[in-house]
Design a protein that fits this description.
This protein is mostly helical and about 190 residues long. It has eleven helices and no strands.
Length: about 190
């Protein structure tokens, strides 16, 4: 229900930006997009539940409904700690591409602080110094260093060219093509 309902704030945001008919098409594409069905029916995890709240945050802030945007952002962060990273990126998008620059910057900073605090301070404390969900990022950690959020973040910020090149492996490119092809790469546009 939450995954499907995410089409509503996506439509509302799109209708404000590109008109009702194109927004309806975008929302329909979201609902027909095979990876959305895969996230719902196969190997289900928590992050897809946050999509409704992420897009509701976007719509709320873009339309000047800051209370709605704030509550939606809190609900998104309650799904899982890494949703705060998505909210920080969303805040950057809002600051760069909408008239709500200040609100976007506030969202980006608050969500970024929450994300870093949870990943680098709170979670390691309860995991006896270990960190969760970092296996997929170990290629960004210099040889000989312990795989942790700090090392990944330092590489991503300190060497963005290397970070970008790490995405250009054959298996990763094939994956990006496979998730884009079902709707003629429309989600990327």
């Amino acid at each position: 229900l939450l995954i499907g309902a995410a089409a509503i704030p996506l439509f509302l945001f799109g209708a404000r930006r590109i008109g009702a008919y194109p927004a309806c098409l975008v929302s329909l594409c979201y609902l027909l997009y095979p990876p959305v069905h895969g996230a719902n029916l196969y190997d289900f995890h928590y992050p897809p539940l946050a999509v409704l709240f992420l897009w509701l945050t976007l719509y709320g802030i873009d339309s000047g409904r800051y209370k709605l945007g704030s509550v939606a952002a809190l609900l998104a962060m309650s799904v899982r700690e890494d949703m705060a990273g998505d909210l920080a990126v969303l805040g950057g998008f809002i600051a760069l591409f909408t008239p709500r620059v200040r609100a976007g910057l506030i969202l980006a900073v608050v969500a970024g602080i929450y994300f870093v605090g949870m990943k680098m301070l709170v979670m390691p404390r309860f995991l006896e110094g270990n960190e969760a969900f970092l296996e997929q990022w170990q290629a960004l950690v210099p040889a000989g260093e312990k795989v942790n959020s700090r090392a990944v973040l330092m590489t991503a910020l300190g060497n963005p060219v290397f970070t970008f090149r790490s995405l250009l492996e054959e298996q990763k490119l094939l994956y990006f093509i496979q998730i884009g092809a079902p709707l003629a790469f429309f989600p990327w546009r």
